[in-house]
């Protein structure tokens, strides 16, 4: 996975976290949620890449 793909996943995770955290989210809450989503999606992406499968998450 190249750097552009990492950036795409992280940007999508951040946008998703902002949407999920409501109208007045704290920076800490958004950062924690974005980090969780990015970690999950990157792990999924790497596992799928190893198996030769397509991604199924929103950043896919």
Task: Describe this structure as you would to a colleague.
There is one protein chain. The protein is mostly helical and 60 residues long. It is built from two helices and no strands. The protein has helices at 3-20, 27-51. α1 (3-20) crosses α2. The chain is elongated, with a radius of gyration of 12 Å. The two termini are 12 Å apart.
| Proportion in helices | over 70%
Segments where pLDDT lies below 50 for 5+ residues? none
Number of helices: 2
The helix-and-strand class reads mainly alpha
Quick overview:
With 60 residues, this protein is mostly helical. The protein has two helices and no strands.
Entry keywords:
60 residues; mainly alpha; elongated; 72% helix
Walk me through the topology.
Elements (H helix, E strand, L loop, with lengths): L2 H18 L6 H25 L9
Helix pairs in contact: 1-2
């Amino acid at each position: 996975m190249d750097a552009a793909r990492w950036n795409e996943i992280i940007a999508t995770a951040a946008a998703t976290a902002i949407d999920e955290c409501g109208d007045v989210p704290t920076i800490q809450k958004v950062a924690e949620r974005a980090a969780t989503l990015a970690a999950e999606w990157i792990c999924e992406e790497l596992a799928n890449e190893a198996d030769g499968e397509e991604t199924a998450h929103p950043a896919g």
